[in-house]
Design brief:
Radius of gyration: 19 Å
Number of helices: 3
Distance between the termini: 32 Å
Number of strands: 6
Largest sheet: 4 strands, antiparallel
Helix content: 10-25%
Length: 135
Amino acid sequence: DDDIRIRPIAAPPGFDWNDAHPLPPDARPPQPRAVEYSFPVHDARRVAALAALQSLLASESWPLTRRRPQRESIFDLRPHLIGADLTAEGLLQFRLKVAPDGSARPEELLEALALRDLLDRGAVLTRTGLELSEG
């Protein structure tokens, strides 16, 4: 049977496909290039969070210490932050670069903005977008 069957693309609710096309057989698979997130910030924390965000965005470097069992390392968060905004409604929206030599974690940005405790208390960090390279 030489009949080509096309299966419909199934995706979870809220997942929107912008574009899809088959890769040539010899193509490398796409790799993540950037990831977008959103995080709610309570009214009482917005002024301080905005000041911290503006300071971070204005800086050239933002070193942080990564702790692992048996070792610590210094990681520069700033080059991995592509962009960020805190809306008037209190939604922190940010985009992080994904790099093969190491990427920033969204929790590290929240920590840099002194918002990590909100995550620990049940606030939901949502991945809202993923950009892939073309292989």
